[in-house]
C-alpha cells in the first residue's frame, strides 16, 4: 500500500478500519502524537492499562517484541504495541560490535508474523527522519536506513508523514479551532498568528487557548494578537548569541533591544537566550569529543536540525570554559529575576555586559 496522509488514516479509523502496522513520522510532532493517540484509542478504547505496551526504540528487545506481538488481547479487541523512536540508523543505545543492518533485519522478520488481533505502531517524535522530495510523485522519500521500515509498513499497513503545514493551511485550522471554542478570527489574523508562532502547532494550540479565554464570544482582533501573543524570534536569539561569541557589543545590544520590545514576555526572553547558550555548550562539548551534528540532534532529541547547525557554527568561536561562564551568568540572572522585583531590562543589559566581558 502506498504512503498515505493523516486525513486518510483518520477517515479509516472513523469507519472502524485498523491495519496491523503503522509508521508515523514528520516535523509536525504534535500531529504525530495526536494521530498515534487516535490509533491507540481505536484499537483498545479505554483499556490502555491492559491492552497497550509502550516500548522505547533504542532499548527494543526484538525477542520480547515478538512475544508481545503474539499475545492474546486482554479486555479489548486488539493487542496494541507502541514503539517510539526506533532509529534504523542506530537501533541500539550502544552499538559496539553490532551492525545496524543485522538488528533491522531481525525486526522486519518479527513483523512478518503479526496476527490479526495485534496492532503495531512505530512513531518518531525524538529525532528527525531526513527526507527528499520525489518530483515524479510529489511525495517525500526517506533518505536513510529508516526507509526500509517505512516501506514495509506502507506495503502491509499504513505509513504516513506529518509535515509542517503552510500558513494558509494553518490559518484554516486556526479559524476552525477558534470557531469551535465559540470565538471568531479572520483568516488574515489567523495567518498572522501562524507567522507569530513560526508555524509551530503546539505553540499555536497554546495561544488559541489563551486568546479564546480572553476574547470569549467576541472576535480575536489584530490588536488582541499583538497585546497577548509573544512573537517567536529564534533568529534574534541567534543574533544575540552570535554577537556575544564575536565580542560585538553593538550587535549584541541591538539584538537585546529588539527582543525587549515585547514587554509582557521578558521572562521568555531570558529563557530563550539561555536555551541558545545551552545549545552552543552542548555543541562545543560534542565537537571536543569528535561528535557530529546528527549525534547531538539524536542524543538531545532536537526536532529542528537548523538549531544544532547554528549552535555548532556559533560555538566554534567560544571556548567551553567561556560558554560555561555564560551559562552560569544566565543562571544567576534567572535567580535574580525570580527572587524579587527589579527592572528586567536593566538586569538583562547587565547580563549581556557580563557575558561580553568573559574571555576565551
From TrEMBL:
The source's domain of life comes to: Bacteria
Its EC top class is transferase
Which GO cellular component terms, listed alphabetically, does the Swiss-Prot or TrEMBL entry include?
Answer: DNA polymerase III complex
Q: Which keywords belong to this entry?
A: DNA replication, DNA-directed DNA polymerase, Nucleotidyltransferase, Transferase
DNA polymerase III delta subunit-like C-terminal domain ranges (all copies): 237-354
Q: Name one GO molecular function term.
A: DNA-directed DNA polymerase activity
InterPro entries from the xrefs?
Answer: DNA_pol3_clamp-load_cplx_C (IPR008921), DNA_pol3_delta-like_C (IPR048466), DNA_pol3_delta_N (IPR010372), DNA_polIII_delta (IPR005790), P-loop_NTPase (IPR027417)
Its EC number(s): 2.7.7.7
- Substrates-to-products reaction catalysed: DNA(n) + a 2'-deoxyribonucleoside 5'-triphosphate = DNA(n+1) + diphosphate
Could you tell me which residue ranges the DNA polymerase III delta N-terminal domain spans?
A: 22-124
Keyword Hydrolase tagged = no
Q: Enumerate the Gene Ontology biological process terms.
A: DNA-templated DNA replication
Keyword tRNA processing in record: no
Classification via NCBIfam families: holA
Q: What family does the Swiss-Prot or TrEMBL record give for this protein?
A: Belongs to the DNA polymerase HolA subunit family.
PANTHER family on file: DNA POLYMERASE III SUBUNIT DELTA
Q: What is this protein called?
A: DNA polymerase III subunit delta
The opening ranks of the lineage are:
Bacteria, Bacillati, Bacillota, Clostridia, Eubacteriales
Amino acid at each position: 500500500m502506498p504512503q498515505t496522509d493523516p486525513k486518510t488514516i483518520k477517515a479509516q479509523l472513523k469507519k472502524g478500519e485498523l491495519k496491523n502496522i503503522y509508521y508515523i513520522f514528520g516535523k509536525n510532532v504534535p500531529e504525530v502524537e495526536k494521530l498515534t493517540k487516535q490509533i491507540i484509542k481505536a484499537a483498545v478504547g479505554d483499556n490502555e492499562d491492559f491492552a497497550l505496551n509502550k516500548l522505547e526504540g533504542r532499548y527494543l528487545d526484538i525477542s520480547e517484541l515478538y512475544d508481545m506481538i503474539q499475545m492474546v488481547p486482554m479486555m479489548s479487541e486488539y493487542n496494541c504495541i507502541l514503539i517510539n523512536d526506533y532509529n534504523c540508523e542506530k537501533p541500539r543505545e550502544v552499538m559496539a560490535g553490532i551492525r545496524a543492518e543485522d538488528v533491522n533485519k531481525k525486526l522486519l522478520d518479527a513483523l512478518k508474523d503479526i496476527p490479526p488481533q495485534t496492532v503495531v505502531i512505530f512513531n518518531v517524535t525524538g529525532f528527525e527522519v531526513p527526507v527528499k522530495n520525489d518530483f515524479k510523485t510529489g511525495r517525500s522519500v526517506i533518505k536513510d536506513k529508516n526507509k526500509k521500515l517505512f516501506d514495509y509498513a506502507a506495503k502491509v499497513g499504513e505509513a504516513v508523514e506529518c509535515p509542517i503545514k503552510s500558513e494558509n493551511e494553518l490559518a484554516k485550522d486556526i479559524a476552525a479551532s477558534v470557531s469551535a471554542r465559540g470565538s471568531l478570527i479572520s483568516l488574515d489574523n489567523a495567518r498572522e498568528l501562524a507567522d507569530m508562532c513560526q508555524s509551530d502547532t503546539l505553540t499555536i494550540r497554546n495561544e488559541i487557548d489563551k486568546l479564546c479565554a480572553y476574547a470569549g464570544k467576541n472576535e480575536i482582533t489584530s490588536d488582541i494578537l499583538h497585546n497577548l501573543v509573544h512573537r517567536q524570534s529564534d533568529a534574534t536569539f541567534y543574533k544575540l548569541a552570535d554577537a556575544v561569541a564575536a565580542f560585538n557589543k553593538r550587535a549584541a545590544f541591538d539584538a537585546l533591544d529588539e527582543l525587549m520590545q515585547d514587554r509582557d514576555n521578558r521572562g521568555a526572553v531570558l529563557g530563550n537566550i539561555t536555551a541558545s547558550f545551552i545549545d552552543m555548550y552542548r555543541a562545543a562539548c560534542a565537537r571536543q569529543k569528535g561528535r557530529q551534528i546528527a549525534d547531538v540532534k539524536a542524543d538531545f532529541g532536537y526536532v529542528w536540525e537548523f538549531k544544532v547547525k547554528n549552535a555548532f557554527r556559533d560555538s566554534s568561536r567560544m571556548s567551553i570554559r567561556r560558554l560555561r561562564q555564560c551559562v552560569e551568568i544566565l543562571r544567576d540572572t534567572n535567580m535574580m529575576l525570580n527572587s524579587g522585583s527589579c527592572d528586567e531590562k536593566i538586569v538583562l543589559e547587565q547580563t549581556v555586559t557580563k557575558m561580553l566581558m568573559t574571555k576565551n
